[in-house]
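Quick log. Single chain, no ligands specified.
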Amino acid sequence: MEKKRVRLNIVDIIVIAVVIIAVGFFAWRVKTADQPTFSTGHTQRLDYEVVVDIARSQLADFYAAQEYPAQMVASGKSVNGFVDAVTADYHDAERVELNYGAAIIRLKPDSKWYCRLKFTCHAFVNSTDLTDLVGGQEIRAGANYLVKTLNFEHSGQIISLTRKDAE
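-> predicted structure:
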């Protein structure tokens, strides 16, 4: 019997190297997918408030029945943020047509049809990170923010933010 000699040219070697690198990269991504991405440093606590200007009053009743603090979630996983409380100021609303074709919603006080919700939240972030991310969302005053727990989610705007070292 005659032995066959395996011959590899440069293209075969490059293809094999690319496949090995791709398999290694995907294995690394799967292994590190659930690990936190904190860099070294100390942890800070962020206290912030998220406001929803117009919401149905039934939502306020639902939020009042929840247990707090409620842990926030993102992409089906728990994150290091919590909703401490939800308060509501009740209003009635009316649509006001403007001269140039647009319309606004004007709130009338002392009615129970609509409400202004305020979510009081806190989160823990690493002090050395350039952005304060909780569940992939940046926390900064003025930003739109999705408050999401296992039982509810609502989109609003961050109106206040304080930072202190975690205990």
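The chain has one domain: 43-165.
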